Amino acid sequence: MADINETTPAMPQLHDVLIIGGGPAGLAVASRLSEHLPAASFTDDEHNRYTWLKKRQGKVSIKKYKTGAVKTAGSCAGTAREQAPAMVVLDATGGKWMARWDYLFKTFGISHLRSPMFFHIDPAERDGLLSYAHMSGRGNELTELRGCVGKEMSKHKWKKRVKARRELGDGPTVDERDRNDYFVPSTPLFASHCGCIIDRYGLREDIVRHEKAVDIKFDYFDDVCQTDKVFRIETDKQIYYSRTAVLAVGPANDPVIPSYPGTNNVEASTHALRIKEFPSPPVQEKIAAKKPTNLLVVGGGLTSAQLADLAIRRGVTRVFLIMRGPLKSKYFDIGLEWVGKFRNFEQAAFWTADSLEERMEMILAARDGGSITPPYKKVLDRLIANNKVVLSLHTTIKSRNWNEETSTWDVELSGGPKLPPIDHIYFATGVQSNFQTLPYLQSLIQQYPIKDCGGMPCITEDMQWSEEVPLFMAGRLGMLQLGPGAPNLIGARIGAERISWAIQEHLKEKNEDKTKKSGSQFDYLTARGSRFEALVEE
Known about the structure:
The protein is α/β, with parallel strands linked by helices. It folds into three domains: 13-56 and 82-144 and 185-254 and 431-511, FAD/NAD(P)-binding domain (3-Layer(bba) Sandwich), CATH 3.50.50.60; 146-181, no CATH class; 266-333 and 369-427, FAD/NAD(P)-binding domain (3-Layer(bba) Sandwich). It contains 14 helices and 20 strands. A hairpin with a 4-residue loop joins strand 15 (396-403) and strand 16. The protein is globular and about 75 Å long. The protein starts with 13 loop residues before the first strand and ends in a 13-residue tail after the last helix. InterPro entries: FAD/NAD-bd_sf (IPR036188).
């Protein structure tokens, strides 16, 4: 006879939404799912009215314009507030939102974002970041992007350009009325704004778990749900079940150091995204001992310029910066035509492309490889003039060999100058994304294969893995639907809007089916209506 005190094991919790990734894209989805009056769904006037009514719900009388009917104060006080779906977030870096983001910004010493003011993750207001800056008295933490609108042009040049535009019928890339948008926030200001969003939607309490996803399956699991397929997500600590899932993992793949002829020393060569301490401890020891130090930085993007500047500020004698192509300077990592007043034209052309391959070509053309911002271009020019940085364009590493006696690299370049012994090599070469190689997606790829285009998943317009599998792609992995801005903050917000609509529709359908089935069972058991209705197949 079984022990009467023996209890049956508890049924595993079934979440509505599970988000993998606690960065900007993941936070954008979580906050949008918690916002019931998103700015994207209404005009400014509608949004202001609905927000005003929501704040004063049950406290004021409301008169309908067409019918003249008056809903008195207190009559709607008992209306139940729409609840956000039950969600959990998994992040491999830390148990809090933006852990990886904060770590990288601190490591690289980044003072300001590269994105303009309307690139943010607040679902409630298009100008949420700008409003927050002025409401909190931190307008002085905004830096203008001089040149986007044309403020720094002389009066003569301005008149000449206006005359040329009149003759050609052309207009400015950025509208003068959008000048307030073309400032960039400081890193602390953006972090505070994200914290405000987290607190506003109650996303701080035990939602983000410091766990790494290991495997994702979508199937029937009788111990959780016998009627619907759900996700079974295994981490390095436990197993979760969820009706829907969101993949918001940035580049997704691990950074890889390019291979070159010669010896390799893992400790003396580091990918920028793997930096734990900068410069490395051996280099710091040489700096403290007043010995000359030389670093080699490989890459043509903003990170390479930031590392070169940071190294000099922290005492490195000289930095050799090599790029395999030309030095490109622009404010954003996508073309201004995708950001300015004519961005709708570019987006329309993208969405009406004949094929996903054509979309990928447009993405590659818009992003156009690595680039640095004009302010960092000035910093780099100053360091080059002071002989602190040596810049070599159209140059690659031909070979590298580690010298055990001197603990330095002997590096030979193709098309560049002869280098002195190098203490450390840093690779700011980005990450090549390919969802097909992600370990935790292998089970899903095998059971529900989808097409691949340039390493990106060919997902539905709702950002969904397939019509059958409610796994949604946020951020970079949604690039084929969102366009070249997908990896940016604007892509995080737009993607979150699409994903949230689809998730809410999916959960609504499941709840309606559940209610309908339970109602039919109740009618059958209480002899209401025809008992044969219970036999009807949906």
